[in-house]
Prior knowledge:
The protein contains six helices and eight strands; from the N terminus they run ββββββββαααααα.
Amino acid sequence: MRTVALRGGARVAVDATEWRDAFGVVTHGRVQLELRNGDPGPVLGPDAGFWLRGTGVRALRNPDRHTAKVRIVTRHSTNPDASHRSMEHNMNDTGIVTAPSTHRMRGLATTGLIATLAAMAATTLAAALAQAAGANFEIPDGGESIPLPGFAVVTGFFSIVGTVIAAVLLRWSARPATRFLWTTVPLTAISLIPPVISGANTATTTALLALHLIPATIMIPTLTRRLRTRTP
Length: 232
């Protein structure tokens, strides 16, 4: 049993003779498998395990800036951890166990929930203040005013959607924080179009634009920071 450390952006080739029958377990950071044809393979997080034999993996690469570590267990190693044996029995047909870090996923979910509640409270409070200042939130097409609880519901729904997007990127992307920004910032910009073309009066339109930006300024930076965090 030995541990391979990869600095940020580092790549180590898999020597077929040296790594024969080896089973790898990511113990720190994230590691991306480079396939035999040069294509990028899956990105594995802490506690994820994989066989090197027969999987077409020709190299290991660290897609992040921080050091990643992989524990290599060979057939000749003695007393491998029970968790390693368990992972061997739960591998799929490709020989790769893509179990993400449970701690990181839970941490992201907790952060997303707290940020969602904060966004709902801030948006509802801002809507109440805007209403007191003269915004009636009446949409000409419907003829009805948007109730204050409606802002909380809509904010909560889209905040949860943002958290789900962050979780998907954490699971599948080599650069989840960057991809999250590339996804959510354009979506926020698109969300500003309906208030502008709604035909509402100036006060209501201005208030609706602000109420779109308030939850975005809470959710996007909070989840981005969490995606960049390496520890649970």
